Automatic annotation (TrEMBL), chain A:
The gene is sdaAA. Pfam families: SDH_alpha (PF03313). GO terms for molecular function: L-serine ammonia-lyase activity. PANTHER family: L-SERINE DEHYDRATASE, L-SERINE DEHYDRATASE 1. Residues 19-277 form the Serine dehydratase-like alpha subunit domain. This is L-serine dehydratase. It is an enzyme of class 4 (lyase). It comes from Paenisporosarcina macmurdoensis.
TrEMBL record, chain B:
It comes from Paenisporosarcina macmurdoensis. Belongs to the iron-sulfur dependent L-serine dehydratase family. Residues 148-220 form the ACT domain. The keyword Metal-binding applies. It catalyses: L-serine = pyruvate + NH4(+). Gene3D superfamilies: 3.30.70.260, D-3-phosphoglycerate dehydrogenase, domain 3. The gene is sdaAB. Pathway: Carbohydrate biosynthesis; gluconeogenesis. PROSITE patterns: ACT. This is L-serine deaminase. It comes from the Bacteria. GO terms for molecular function: L-serine ammonia-lyase activity. Keywords: 4Fe-4S, Gluconeogenesis, Iron, Iron-sulfur, Lyase, Metal-binding.
Length: 298, 220
């Protein structure tokens, strides 16, 4: 099968030489690989975008998971933002609240769109719906944001991993933050090279992040890690747009992430055996939710 | 390239909380049901690695049962699949295993009814994407993303060629194909991933060919 790009270097070179957006190359590759029409592909992404909008809307109204571990924080953040005196700025807190909203809906077994996974589903839509207010994109530009994210995610998934069980949280929220950073840059009018710088800067600051969910639930610390993933994405995008570059090229950062994931002990890869899951409080919460037998097994 | 489509990355649309442990698990259940061709009456599900450690928290168990009942990743009925299984006459058991597997999220499903049994090993590789690594003891690699045909046949000369030409006559292109057998001259398995949609009458034609025992389609 013929692919237009297999790594970020090829993606950026092709976009630059053909003077095309990264989102456009992702759309063209999808048409090539799946033999579907552009219209069909755009329509499916439009549907995914609608699912993301609905999840944020639902989360901002307030949802709670059955375990009681998560819920309601998106509402707190949104109300705080509306008061207008946030320290890190309204746009950033808006992104954070919407990322949290999505993951609170996910934890409550609501409908979400995995980007790239369910546990990390808040970062890409959270940032999108926050920068939307500043950049006033068209519907098509919003759909393109998802294709740009997808292009970078495609490279990570094929050359490293997007699974917390295989690579830790750096592979999930780390990938999501870096994907979002690249997409923000494209929507802001940055070059394909700047997209890749934003990706590299973002991913570098997520390296080593372990997957240690309390009680094995995609709640603690997942929801708050989506909040920080969104903040990381925005700051990384701003850095790249300011002209800051990464000393380590994007593909090498992705490779480093893969190797770090491989050398991570399995206790820190979505088994709920180490990290925050193994703290006294983490274990006590697991016992409260599933009973003592389950915790003994863990 | 394990991930071919952008919708493997931005997607699937699914019920939370985990793409690998909930959506991937539902897909393993759904593919198992499709390979079996009908709803099983009973199921024994062995879980390995992270699946074994955290299946309760992620709803892996209810998702697999949801899949066996025919529910896709976004079907809200997954939430109540245990109750719905009872209504549908499907009994099940989950057995967490301690053994090591190649990938941390692996499930072995043994299912059946009064007339047949089937065993399948499914792997959730991230983002809701799955691979089927073994079927009834035959090793295979099946992404579940393309239309695929599984053909159980006798290991006799010409049986593969006849199936291939039958597909060619229907203008169906083979994208990927694997053939395996337990022993020379015994039962063998063809796994054929194709680019086009497969109509029911094509399967019936293949089933009528010599040395063919069973033909199943996995929908796209």
């Amino acid at each position: 099968m013929k692919f237009l790009f297999r790594n970020v270097k090829e993606l950026v070179e092709l976009a630059t030489s053909e003077n095309k957006l990264i989102s456009e190359l992702m759309i063209e590759q999808e048409m090539l690989v799946t033999r579907r029409s552009r219209e069909d592909i755009m329509k499916q992404m439009d549907t995914n975008l609608t699912v993301m909008e609905q999840a944020v809307e639902k989360g901002l109204k307030g949802v709670h998971s059955t375990s009681g571990l998560t819920g309601g924080d998106a509402v707190l953040l949104h109300n705080y933002m509306k008061k207008g005196n946030t320290l890190s700025g309204a746009l950033l807190i808006d992104a954070v609240s919407k990322a949290v909203a999505t993951n609170e809906v996910n934890a409550a077994m609501g409908t979400i769109c995995a980007t790239p996974t369910a546990g990390s589903a808040g970062v890409v839509p959270g940032t999108l719906f926050a920068v939307q207010n500043q950049l006033n994109p068209t519907r098509e530009e919003m759909i393109r944001y998802l294709f740009t994210s997808g292009a970078f995610g495609f490279v990570v998934a094929n050359n490293a991993s997007i699974s917390g069980a295989a690579g830790g949280c750096q592979a999930e929220v780390g990938s999501a933050a870096a994907m979002a950073a690249a997409a923000i840059v494209e929507m802001s009018g940055g070059t394909p090279q700047q997209c890749s710088e934003a990706f590299a800067i973002s991913m570098k600051n997520m390296l080593g992040l372990v997957c240690d969910p309390v009680a094995g639930l995609v709640e603690v610390p997942c929801v708050k890690r989506n909040a920080m993933g969104a903040a990381n994405a925005l700051v990384s995008a701003d850095m790249a747009l300011a002209g800051v570059t990464s000393r380590i090229p994007c593909d090498e950062v992705i490779d480093a992430m893969y190797k770090i994931g491989q050398s991570m002990p399995s206790a820190l890869k979505e088994t709920a055996q180490g990290g925050l899951a193994a703290t006294p409080t983490g274990r006590a919460l697991a016992e409260r939710i599933f009973g003592a037998d389950f915790v003994k097994g863990v | 390239m394990k991930f071919k489509s952008v919708f493997d990355i931005i997607g699937p649309v699914m019920i939370g909380p985990s793409s690998s442990h909930t959506a991937g698990a539902a897909r393993i259940g759904l593919v198992t049901r499709e390979l079996f061709g009908r709803q099983p009456k009973w199921a024994k599900v062995y879980l390995y690695g992270s699946f074994a450690e955290t299946y309760k928290g992620h709803g892996t168990d209810i998702a697999i049962i949801g899949g066996l009942l025919g529910f896709d990743t976004f079907d809200e009925r997954i939430k109540t699949s245990f109750d719905l299984a009872k209504e549908a006459g499907l009994t099940f058991e989950f057995i967490p295993e301690t053994g090591h597997t190649e990938h941390p999220n692996t499930a072995r499903l043994v299912i059946g009814d009064e007339s047949a049994e089937m065993e399948l090993i499914g792997v959730s590789i991230g983002g809701g994407k799955i691979e089927i690594s073994e079927l009834n003891g035959f090793p295979l690699r099946l992404s579940g993303n393309h239309s695929a045909i599984l053909v159980v046949h006798d290991d006799k000369p010409g049986s593969i060629a006849k199936v291939a030409s039958c597909l060619a006559e229907q203008n169906i292109n083979i994208g990927h194909m694997e053939v395996s057998r337990k022993e020379q001259g015994q039962m063998a398995l063809m796994v054929i991933e194709v680019d086009e949609h497969i109509e029911e009458h094509v399967l019936q034609q293949i089933a009528l060919l010599p040395h063919i025992t069973q033909v199943t389609k996995i929908s796209d």
